[in-house]
Amino acid sequence: MKAIAAFLLAIIAIQAPAQTPAALQQALTGYIWTWSTPASQTQVIFQQDGSLLTREKKLWKWQALDAQTVRVSLEGRAVDITFDAAFSQFKELKASGVPVTGVRAQALASSAAAPVAKVPPDPKNMTLAREWIPHNVHTRKVLLNSIESYSLAVIGQNRSGPEVTPKTLWGPITWLMPLGDALKTLPRDSRKQRDFKVTNLAFPQSSLQVTMMAVVGVEITDRCNTFKYISFICDMDSRVIGVQLMNPNPKLVNWHAPGPDGVREPYYNFIEDRYNGSTGNCVPYQVRDAGSGVKLIKLALFNQGSIGIPPYPPGNCPGFVRLHDYGARPYLESVHWYLAAPLAHRLMEIVDAVRKAGLDDK
Q: Taking 60 as the threshold, does the pLDDT of residue 109 lie above it?
């Protein structure tokens, strides 16, 4: 029996990483991690110098407290997280309410300076990284379900049908328009809010870049709604393949009559990885035609309180209705995402690949 026990302990020792501060640092700094809170999900990179890189470029710091525990600090607030024995996931220690959690996403490239290999350019289609379909990446099942639903609304239920190449994405923005030309269509006082890479695990990996612009002095009007920000989603050659309009604090949201198509939880902003983390909120949505090969995915985060979704009174424009907020139940975000058929086809390939590999988590 002692020999068997010793053999099993030896096997465990081989399979599980050594629990030392050095092993912890190596495990953290060698991967991209998904960082989840009740309100959002993003990806982070633990740097060896003690900094924590985020897509939002926040100045986070981290330090190892012991062989399994790390303290993350941001603007005076500290969060202690503990890792499992395999260094594959973590959770917040002593959390009040729903804890911060995380999971190992994918390995970092051997050299941060190494260029990402591109699929050969195609003048009629987007340019993606050669390894654009994620591998060994755990993706939330609810995320894949939503991406599948909206993508099929664009390309139709026949996934193998002919791919429609759009001409116009939104307003003056055309398919594969150079980013510089797209920026020239905005009002003169528009300013860059930020640039960031799309790290949503259901989107092409290492391929898409977003330039978010704030429109100063005026607001963008789209389908009887106003927006403060416009984001140009670009491929690896800085050509526009999608447009997203966003208002972070709308007073009301107008919907095409007769009202939202339904409520689909929890994601309401896929480009920025934001999802509903409260049972008091809901995410109503609509899908509407926006030209050949393009659909409007209309999403909102609505604070419904304890009364459920109220009725839809007439809106501000003919043919539109709105969710009444009774003056005290604000919208928390309004999004118009213009999704084109070529990107929708790629999203469906990712959905199918992740599900086939059994990497869709609950």
A: no
